[in-house]
Structure formats: structure tokens, C-alpha cells
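Consider the following assembly input.
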Amino acid sequence: MSSHARIALRPEACTSCMLCVRECPTWCISLEAHQELVGDPGARRPRTVNVLDAFVIDWGLCMYCGICVEVCPFDALAWQP
Amino acid sequence: MLVAEEQVPAGAWRQRCAELAADGATMLDFLAGVDDPAAGRIVVVAHVVDVAARRRVLLRTEVDRADPVLDSMVAVYPGAAWHERETHELLGVRFAGHPDLRPLLTTGAMGFPLRRTTPLPARMATPWPGATDPADRPAEGAGRSGRVAARPRARLAPPGMPAEWEPDARSPRGES
């Protein structure tokens, strides 16, 4: 039987879509992000991207259900041994 | 062990429990309830096990949410006594024939805590982290190019919260 110590984020994969924050049943995830414009030479105007500032899981509230890992569309969250 | 699932009409609950116990399923694992306000019912679930035969049965029944009454199974499974007390204090299901339906833990001050319509004080007082959005801090110069990436238009609320609750736009760490 496997056991997990925590859930870890890969910041380079995170797009601050907020899905993990909103689906967490215990509201243990806090995410702060802002938007920036990124030049796109092929497009008529710059692209807006989310930039992650802070991602915190409150381990006192986390119940290790794994819903955040499942719901992340970019596989940015994973179990860590 | 595979588990056999059964849907039992509420009126046949006591009889079905007696049949299963007589058949050898003498161990009660748990009895619990699930609130389903959308369907106007409370589902009661019981898990009984025949250890020798390695057989598990998951029984489900449903009671009317407006007046939830179900026969108690204590005569067949005495161990259900506290499970039924707990289901009664958390969801309000009355178990007919139960010798002592006193609450185990609750004081009754907040109604039935496990009902999905009961606003729990800790939830009501806590700002929801999902209320913020990256679009709350738009890029500089975004307005000049014509369009600002909009916040999600759909009204966001955490799943399962009662209607009286409002998501607070403050960050949960106290910054505005």
C-alpha cells in the first residue's frame, strides 16, 4: 500500500487556471497570480498570460484526497513520496 | 472480497437486515447517511460482512428528507446503535425502535451539520481561496490594446455550499 508525504507543484507547468483551488474540498490551496502581456510576433496584439506568484497548500487542512492532482489539466501537481 | 450492492426499499429495511444476518453476515462495518437535497431524500448506507464466507454486502435505502424515518437495525446488529445515533445527530434521520437516540457529539446548536443546506460557521467565516482570479491583477498596458482578459463570467462558488454563502474576494491571507 502506497503512502504519500505531500503534493508538489511544478511551477513551470502551472498556468494559474485556479481549478485545483476551486475543486479542493477543504479550501487548503491558496494561489496568487497576476497577468502580463507577452509579445507575439505572429499576432496582431500581445498575448495575455497568467504568471504564478505564490502557491501554498495548508497541510493542516489537506486531506490527501488527490482531487487537485486529478483535476489539473497540465499535470502540474503530483504526489511526492 | 467483492462487494454486492443492494437497493432496499425503506419498508423492507429491517426484514432485509434480518435475512442477511441469518444468512451469515453477522458483522456490521458501518451505517451512514448521505444528504441529497436535490432529490429530496437522505440515502442511508449500511455495510455488512460475512467474514467466514468472505462476502460483503452494501445496502442502500432512501428516506424522505422532509420526514426521515427508518427502522432501526439494533435488534439484528446491536453494534448499529452508535452508528444510528450519529446518523441521527448529523442528518436528522429518526430510527424507529432505537432504544436511545441521544446525540453523541453535537449540541444541536447548528441544526444537522452534515446536511448540505446547513451553513457551517467555519465555512461561513472563511474567505474562499477560489474567489480570486489572475485577471484581478491585469497586465499593465492591457487596456490600451483594447481588450482586458476578463474574469470568468460564470458565478463561481465552491461545490456544495448553501445559497446564503457569498465568496469573499479577499485573499485568504488577509491582503485585499
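Residues 169-176 of chain B have pLDDT under 50 and may be disordered. Ask yourself how this observation constrains the way the partners meet.
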